[in-house]
Amino acid sequence: MKGLLLKDFYVAAGTCWPYLLVLIFFGAIVAFGGASPFIILVGAYLMSMASMNVLATDERAKWHIFADTLPVTRVQVVAAKYILTLILAAFSAAVLALSGFIRTVNPALAGEGYTFAEALSALSVLPLTASFASLCMPFIFRLGFEKGRIAFVVLCVMAGMGCGIISSLSGDDFPAINIPANITLIILAVSAAVFAASWAASTALYKTREF
Questions:
Q1: I want to staple 130 with a disulfide (CB 3.0 to 4.6 A). Which of 27, 89, 184, 190 is the partner?
Q2: What's the whole-model pTM score?
Q3: Helix (H, G, I), strand (E, B) or coil at 115
Q4: Nearest to 51 by CA among 78, 21, 24, 91
């Protein structure tokens, strides 16, 4: 299992480093430029897609066929991808929290009245980005990345429409996100349930997949 995680980290580092740069870039905008937290959520969303890129790389390299000859189970192969998603989401959360803290103590932004509580409320959207990735993964594990990415495209369109609706209702291209604590708990619970269900579905589907 440790070897699988290390392999996935190496692949992610080699193929997904632009996502990290985008995340840091938007974090810097929020921390020093006074932009809305909505901007950096785009970077967090990109980071959550890293696991799917690792899956795509594995498929192009025929890794799934080679993995069946190794002393690892398909259950472990699936688990490594989901654990990688959780780790990357946690890293995104850390970057967001740091950006929010810097913004609260930035003297140039003191007049905007931005609080650390508002910065933390933006983090409640991170579980949704992890859930977004996990919704695509069962399709990819069962059908392969080429066919499974159709689900990814559909979810991207839905997410874009949602962002457009939020912007139109708020009258702001980058509306601030301030979610009450009780709603945050509901989001966390629903996201955890979606993630767990996706993990179980991917495991069941991949165990019966034939190459």
A1: 89
A2: 0.81
A3: coil
A4: 78
